[in-house]
Here is the input.
Amino acid sequence: SLAIAGIRIRVVGIENFRGTGSKVVIANHTSVLDVPLVAALGPEWPLCLAKAELRWFPVFNLMWWSMGQVFVDRKDPSRAGESLERIIAATRAEARTGILAPEGTRSVDGNIGKFKLGAFRIAVATGAPIVPIVIRGGGNLMPKGQWWANPGEVIIEVKPPIPTVNWTNETIREHTLATERQYRDWIAASGLSS
Here is the structure.
């Protein structure tokens, strides 16, 4: 469906995505297309955490429902915690690949926002490695507030997996901040603006 919209995907580092077992995939977030772009890399039965409002987003909502995706109500911390627990349980029991945007909301200028802890909590709870992905050009395809996709190319860089087996709840903030800083360095090195 991305090809129908005239979207070309160039992938760098796909070897970092290979292998079986659970993974926690994280990506910078500039477009509503980010999760479908990452899912296009081919993880079997990916599990995404999407904001509750996207239940009503045409076409994508059907795709998410068909894959059993988890929607999170960001305004209700208790329900948000339940959503996270559902992903943790599925990652443990079914060896699924979780796909999350740790910024939580889309960036309008391509700069990295503050990372939330959700993806890192899943990694600590499951021991699954974190696979960082940098999406370049996604914001140009479908900027915030736009309801249609522009044709164009997006580059997806899959970085080497980050082992998490020695992470603990006590060190989770340290690891989250370190990963956020790494993303800032990757974005700055590329001159990426959207």
